[in-house]
Design brief:
This protein is an alpha/beta fold. The chain has 7 helices and 15 strands. The protein has helices spanning 53-89, 113-126, 140-151, 180-193, 211-217, 234-243, 253-257, and strands at 8-11, 20-26, 29-34, 40-44, 48-50, 100-102, 106-110, 130-134, 155-159, 201-204, 221-222, 250-251, 268-269, 272-273, 277-279. The longest helix is centred in the N-terminal third of the chain and has 37 residues, at 53-89. It starts with 7 loop residues before the first strand and ends in an 8-residue tail after the last strand.
């Protein structure tokens, strides 16, 4: 079998349950990056199966259905919040003046360039202001402090790829994870700039990440409590919920997790306040 960088493949030993991109080939070992999940893996060349275009199309359609379901649920929640906001902003009085919204601004730092592009497209679709940066996971801790100072976000996302490597230790040992220690260090760097959880909301982690160490480092939300794979877009839906929640309200844990594709097995966190502010009157751009 002729294998090239960028090919879409599956692993025979896992019944091709997930699709991966080939990112490197070292003799008989292939490095893989998840197509829809934030997982990195190694596999022997003889365990690799090329996925046909027809099979990829079928799987893409199923994946699109999951993403659209999540999107519609998110939009439904937002419409309810907006209706309540209109009432509260006008104190229940009928008025012809429309209000404007200042939504929480996101700094999204991602170790995967293609995932960052996918996430940015969804942020834009949801109307969330975002500044995206591609940085390799190992470089995140040293660059995080200057990035937070430069962008001054309300919400910070630190993600990319990760994996638990059983041969390197137990599930409790952060050294047994590919990138978890870098996520935790990056969170600590950000907290040097903005110490309080209510002044900067942070999501950090990827597939199978060491949840406990990332939360202890100062994240509001992290993956993965049960060390499962998370969807590439889960961070987007989670922090968008925080961005669109009024600053006087708290975002309940279940309320925010229900807007993700993976749910509470893949993501956890602590109560966090929203960042949305409403004002009146809405001005025309020409004025």
């Amino acid at each position: 079998m002729k294998l090239n960088i960028g090919d879409i493949v599956g692993r025979k030993s896992y019944q091709c349950d997930l699709l991966f991109r080939v990112i490197a080939i070292h003799d008989d070992i292939v490095e893989l990056s998840g197509e829809a999940v934030r997982l990195m893996a190694d596999a022997p060349l003889d365990d690799i199966v090329l996925i046909s275009e027809n099979e990829r199309k079928v799987r893409r359609e199923k994946e699109k259905e999951r993403e659209e379901s999540c999107y519609h649920l998110f939009r439904q929640d937002y419409r309810l919040h907006k209706q309540r906001g209109e009432y509260e902003t006008t104190s229940g009085y009928a008025t012809d003046d429309a209000f404007f919204e200042m939504r929480g601004r996101v700094l999204h730092v991602d170790g995967d360039r293609s995932y960052l592009q996918k996430c940015t497209e969804v942020y834009n679709k949801l109307g969330i202001p975002v500044y995206g940066v591609h940085i390799k996971e190992k470089e995140m801790p040293e660059q995080m402090e200057s990035l937070v100072k430069m962008v001054r976000p309300d919400i910070l996302v630190i993600t990319g790829h990760d994996a638990y490597i059983k041969s390197k230790g137990t599930r409790k040992d952060v050294k047994a994870y590919r990138h978890s220690k870098y996520y935790a260090e990056a969170v600590r760097s950000a907290r040097k700039v903005v110490p309080h959880l209510d002044d900067l909301a942070i999501f950090a982690g990827a597939c199978q990440s060491h949840f406990e160490s990332i939360i202890k480092a100062g994240a509001n939300f992290a993956s993965s409590p049960e060390r499962i794979n998370i969807h590439a877009l889960d961070p987007v839906y989670l922090v968008s919920k925080v961005s669109l929640t009024p600053f006087m309200d708290r975002v309940g844990i279940w309320e925010v997790l229900r807007n993700t594709i993976t749910g509470e097995r893949g993501i956890g966190g602590v109560e966090t306040k929203g960042f949305l502010r409403r004002g009146m009157p809405l001005q025309d751009d020409e004025e």
